[in-house]
Structures are given as structure tokens and as C-alpha cells.
Amino acid sequence: xxxxxxxxxxxxxxxxxxxxxxxxxxxxxxxxxxxxxxxxxxxxxxxxxxxxxxxxxxxxxxxxxxxxxxxxxxxxxxxxxxxxxxxxxxxxxxxxxxxxxxxxxxxxxxxxxxxxxxxxxxxxxxxxxxxxxxxxxxxxxxxxxxxxxxxxxxxxxxxxxxxxxxxxxxxxxxxxxxxxxxxxxxxxxxxxxxxxxxxxxxxxxxxxxxxxxxxxxxxxxxxxxxxxxxxxxxxxxxxxxxxxxxxxxxxxxxxxxxxxxxxxxxxxxxxxxxxxxxxxxxxxxxxxxxxxxxxxxxxxxxxxxxxxxxxxxxxxxxxx
Length: 320
Known about the structure:
It is a single chain. The radius of gyration is 33 Å and the shape is elongated. Strands 1, 2, 7, 8, 9, 10, 11, 12, 13, 14 and 19 form an eleven-stranded antiparallel sheet that branches. It has a two-stranded antiparallel ribbon with strand order 3-4. The chain starts with 11 loop residues before the first strand and ends with a strand. By secondary structure, the chain is mainly beta. 9% of the residues lie in helices and 39% in strands.
């Protein structure tokens, strides 16, 4: 039988906490497995006109599916558009308003260029240098990790990429390091690693090599909700189980299937529950919505007797 009590806002505490998990994938087949789908792309800066039938494609998962020029242009726009002329970022070059310059009203004077206005997802508050190749036929390598693997972000100082000829790590500030030199950048919150410098052989090896190892640590914020269910000393001190009444009987009901239930007679209480020391036990706690729909249920490890002289508090923790 059930007894209900409404919870107050003060009885509910939501606490965020961060959990981490380490991943290591070895071999190209491990990267492209259906439950992993870590993809590698080659980006190409080409000046030729776009032709969907002849433009080269790239991608390791399910075969080449993306155009190389689109990979290059997307990475440039998202992460490097402020760093095309200066490795430490271009100064904004914006127009300004001269009020009442002529009879038409305000006039925009100067360049309206948007260079330097982009966000570009900086990884640190430090003065940060990034370089991006802009010459014709320049290439970049891109590694894309699905969010279901890295969670909220890749933990800094945990990324490692190894193949037969190269080894790449991150420095914790968003730089990718190969042989002591910066070869690109990693964007922790997007799961994107970009190789922007190095020989064509290194970039091709990064994109197409088979004996590879990719490892990183993910970070995910989980919210734990704690419900404080307090039974006051004067509450729930009597059982609602109908079998405590004498004279009841078991009734068998048959329709589509046979079922039995206890039918109380409404008589006197059994002698074992009339004593002053009688107390019921709590074995299960359920959480209901306002319409009394059961949302969650928790079983105690052992039945807990209620107390007539002190409060009893049961804590329920739910993680999501």
C-alpha cells in the first residue's frame, strides 16, 4: 500500500559533477567502426571552378563523402579567418560613421571589411598564434571525433596520434606538437584536430595511414538530483496494509486471466498491530508527478522501521 507526501523545492538538490573517460583506438578499422566513426579528411585549396563530378572528395568513414575544397574552406572560415595575414590575429578593419556628412544623412567612411571580427574559437586567454596555409593547392589534414565520444570536450594534454612515421600530441593550449614544433591545432570543445603545416607526406600520412593509434580523454558533466524524503515523527506510524484487519478473505477473480486479491471485511484490527510499540516498516520509495504517475522507484537494502519519537530521512540520488 502507498502513502503520499508532497516534496518542496527545498527538498530537491541538483549537483553537477564532471566525469572523465579514456579512449584508445588502434588501427584504421577501429576508427571507422560504426560505434566509433572517427573520420579523417584532406582539405585542398584549389582555384579551379567547382565541378561536382570531378572535384576530389575525402573521408574515411563510408568512403570519400566530402569535397576536399569544402573541408579546406570550412576549417578556414570557422577557425582561422582572423589569422590569414598574421599568426597572432588580424586587427579589425571596420568602417565608421560620420554623422550628417551630406544631405542624405550619416555616411559610412572607410573599409567595411570583416577581417578580424570572427570568433574562431580561441582555446586560451593567452596571446595565441595560429597559422594557416593559403597558397594555391595547399593542403590540410582534419580529424573529426564525434561528440558522443568526447562528451563536452577533449581534456587538454590527453590527445595522442601515432602512425608509422609521425607522432602528434597536444600541449594543453590548443596546439598540436610534432617533433617539438607546432604542426596544427586541436579544438577541444568541437573534437576537431587540424594539421596545417608539415610536408605533404606528413599530412597524407595523417589522413590515410592504416597502422594508427588515436587516444584522448573525454569530459562530460553529469547532473545528480538528490531528493530528501523526510518522515516526521508523527507521520506514517500506521500501516495501510488491509491484512491488518480481522475477518478479511482472499477473493479470486477470473476474466481473461485469474487473479486474486485480499478483501478486507472492515472489522477489528488484529491484536499484533494494536500494541503501543507497533511500527510499520518502509521498504520502497517511489517518486510521482502531480498526476500521481510513478516516475522512479527505489528499494531499500533492508526494511526501515519508522519512528514515533524522531524524524526519519531517506535520500534518493538520481544521475542523468
